[in-house]
Structures are given as structure tokens and as C-alpha cells.
């Protein structure tokens, strides 16, 4: 009986000695993969930080660019107002110039009248000088009759009054025309000064407008560089997520863990808790935020903020954080090279973390409008071997 027990014990001992190295190998492989995963997480965190820094700088540049654009629009309006003012002043100058010409004509006419009156007075003085001075009393006393006396009195009154009128009219003409000329010239000088000021203002505004245009061009260039940096960081993050997913698969294989992936083809689950309208298709389009042409890598489904976003299929979360353009974003790996991407998630609206295993139809996030978005909606992508493909056939 003992002889039979001994071979059995030896056999069990040999089996145990063989089993221990296998278990040790599996543990060693898992530890090595965990170390690689830790290193990948560090690298991903660094790439994420770089992307976040670039995004923060982009936001700052865009804010500065928006303000510069507003300032330039204000300057353009001021230039237009200055131009209107200049046009009005030109019209005023034309009116004043016309008035000056009229005044000059009136002055010439008044001078001619004064000269005519002066000639009349000089003619009388000349006659008096040639014929000898005769006083008004001599004229009156030399009357031959009473009626002649009255006639001479009236004649003398007429002469005196005429002389007075001539002198008064001359004085009035000279004063009026001189004052009018002075007032008009003063007005013209004032308008010319205003015109010069407005002209200088327009030149200054145009110079500022040009400076703003240069600044906006510089900020646009800077924005493009930062977007390239951010986009490159996003690509790096995606690549690191892919490596992390591959390592997780190796880890499951090493520990004989059950794969979370069951997708082998067919229809995916609808990614929202409610049916929503398609607001942007998988096509080339003009980005509503940047205004540039782009290839839209997924479809947009319009839904109210907070609407539940559901996993389209069983899988493992390989990304759950901010990503340039996408805002808050979740990527789920479903196996066989198939990923689904969920973008523009509301702030504090990501309900899963990297490494979580999710079920088809499970709530993973809430609809929002983060990143490059003009309103609440879900940006949904399907990627096959990391290449975006039209999601619609997967949802039919």
C-alpha cells in the first residue's frame, strides 16, 4: 500500500514544482505590464498637460484676437464717422467759400456806391471852390421874394439831408461789409481747423486699423501653431491610449482574465438615452467655431444638456479627459480594432475612468457643449483601427 502511495506523492510533488514556475511567470509578466502601464500613464499625463497648456494658450490667444477684432471694428466705425464728418466739413467749406464770394461781390458793389457818393461830394466841393464859397445864409438872404425864400430853404434842406444820407449810407455800407467779411473769414478759418483735425483723426485711426490688422494676422498665425501643437498632443495621447489598451489585453491574457470585448460585428447601440436629430453629418464642412474647412470625423446629435450618453457596445474605457476640439471626451475600445468616441461632454459629466469595463447601453457621460461647440450636442465617432469611419451604418 505504501509503495503505491509514494509514486503518487512524487507525481504530485513534480506537478507542484512545475506549477509554481508557471504561476511565477504569469505574476512576473503581469508586474512587468503594470510597470509599463504606469510609465504609459505618466507619458499620457505629460502629453495631456502639454495639450492642456496649448489649449489654455489657444483660449488666451482667441480671447485677445476677439478683442482685437472688436477694437478694429470700432476703429473702422470711427474711420467711417470721421469720413462722414470730413464730407460734411467739405460741404460747409464750399458753402462758406460761396458766401465769401457773394460777400466780395457785395463789398465791391458797396465800395462802388461809396465811391459814387464820394464823387458827388467832391463835385460839390469843387464847384464851391471854383465859384467861391457861398454860405447857406447868403443863399437864403439873396431871395427875391418870399416864395423864392421858401424854395431856397427847401433846396438847402434837401442838399443837407442828401449829404447826411450819403455819409450815413457810406458808413453803414463800410461797417456792414467789413463785419460780414471778418465773420465769414473767421468761420472759414474755424472750418479749416476742424477739417485739419478730422483729417488727422482719420489718418490716426487708419494707422491704428492697420496695426490691428497686423496684430490679428500675428495672433491667427500663433493660434495655428498652438492648434498644431495641441493636435499633435492629441495624436500622441491617442497612440498612448492604444498602447495602454494593448497592454491591458496582454495583462488579461497573462492572468487568464475574461475579455470585456464581445463585439464581432453588427449594429451598435444608440449612444443617447433618447433619439436626437442629426445636426452635422460625417462629411467635409466649415467648422462653425474656427470658420475653416475640415473633415468632420463623426456625426453630431443635438440633445439637451445632461442627456445620458450611453456606451454603444461592451468594452473598456481607454480615454476619459479633455481633448482639443472635442472638449471633455471618452473613448471606448470594443476590441477587434473598433473604438467609439464621445465628445463635447458637459463639465463634470464624465462618469467613467480609464480602465473601467462598460456594458452596452451603460451611462458613461452627459451631453454638453465643451470644446469647439456652438450648442449642446453629442459628437459621436466610430474608429476602425484608429481611422474615423461613418458611424451611421453602425447604428442602422
Automatic annotation (TrEMBL):
Record CDD domains: M23_peptidase
Secretion signal span: 1-26
Domain Peptidoglycan hydrolase PcsB coiled-coil: 110-180
Segments forming a coiled coil: 26-99, 174-257
Stretch list, region Disordered: 368-396
Superkingdom per UniProt: Bacteria
UniProt keyword Signal, yes or no: yes
Keywords noted in UniProt: Coiled coil, Signal
Record field: compositional bias (Basic and acidic residues): 378-389
The protein, known as: Peptidoglycan DD-metalloendopeptidase family protein
Species whose genome carries this gene: Paenibacillus alginolyticus
Amino acid at each position: 500500500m505504501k509503495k503505491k502511495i509514494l509514486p503518487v506523492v512524487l507525481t504530485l510533488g513534480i506537478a507542484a514544482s512545475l506549477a509554481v514556475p508557471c504561476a511565477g511567470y504569469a505574476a512576473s509578466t503581469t508586474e512587468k505590464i503594470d510597470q509599463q502601464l504606469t510609465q504609459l500613464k505618466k507619458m499620457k499625463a505629460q502629453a495631456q498637460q502639454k495639450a492642456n497648456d496649448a489649449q489654455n494658450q489657444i483660449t488666451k490667444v482667441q480671447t485677445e484676437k476677439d478683442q482685437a477684432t472688436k477694437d478694429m471694428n470700432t476703429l473702422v466705425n470711427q474711420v467711417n464717422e470721421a469720413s462722414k464728418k470730413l464730407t460734411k466739413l467739405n460741404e460747409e467749406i464750399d458753402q462758406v467759400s460761396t458766401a465769401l464770394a457773394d460777400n466780395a461781390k457785395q463789398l465791391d458793389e458797396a465800395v462802388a456806391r461809396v465811391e459814387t457818393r464820394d464823387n458827388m461830394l467832391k463835385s460839390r466841393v469843387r464847384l464851391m471852390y471854383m465859384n467861391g464859397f457861398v454860405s447857406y445864409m447868403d443863399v437864403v438872404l439873396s431871395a427875391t421874394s418870399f416864395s423864392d425864400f421858401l424854395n431856397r430853404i427847401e433846396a438847402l434842406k434837401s442838399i443837407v439831408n442828401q449829404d447826411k444820407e450819403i455819409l450815413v449810407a457810406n458808413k453803414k455800407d463800410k461797417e456792414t461789409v467789413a463785419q460780414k467779411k471778418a465773420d465769414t473769414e473767421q468761420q472759414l478759418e474755424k472750418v479749416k481747423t476742424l477739417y485739419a483735425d478730422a483729417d488727422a483723426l482719420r489718418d490716426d485711426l487708419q494707422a491704428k486699423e492697420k496695426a490691428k490688422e497686423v496684430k490679428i494676422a500675428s495672433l491667427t498665425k500663433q493660434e495655428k501653431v498652438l492648434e498644431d501643437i495641441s493636435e499633435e498632443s492629441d495624436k500622441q495621447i491617442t497612440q498612448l491610449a492604444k498602447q495602454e489598451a494593448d497592454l491591458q489585453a496582454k495583462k488579461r491574457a497573462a492572468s487568464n482574465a475574461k475579455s470585456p470585448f464581445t463585439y464581432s460585428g453588427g449594429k451598435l447601440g444608440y449612444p443617447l438615452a433618447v433619439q436626437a436629430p442629426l445636426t452635422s453629418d460625417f462629411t467635409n464642412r466649415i467648422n462653425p467655431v474656427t470658420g475653416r474647412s475640415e473633415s468632420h470625423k463623426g456625426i453630431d446629435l443635438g440633445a439637451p444638456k445632461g442627456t445620458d450618453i450611453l456606451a454603444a457596445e461592451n468594452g473598456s474605457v481607454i480615454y476619459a479627459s479633455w481633448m482639443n476640439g472635442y472638449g471633455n471626451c471618452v473613448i471606448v475600445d470594443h476590441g477587434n480594432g473598433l473604438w467609439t468616441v464621445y465628445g463635447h461632454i458637459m463639465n463634470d459629466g464624465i462618469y467613467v475612468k480609464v480602465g473601467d469595463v462598460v456594458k452596452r447601453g451603460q451611462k458613461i457621460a452627459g451631453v454638453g457643449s465643451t470644446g469647439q461647440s456652438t450648442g449642446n450636442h453629442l459628437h459621436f465617432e466610430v474608429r476602425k483601427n484608429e481611422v474615423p469611419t461613418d458611424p451611421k451604418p453602425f447604428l442602422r
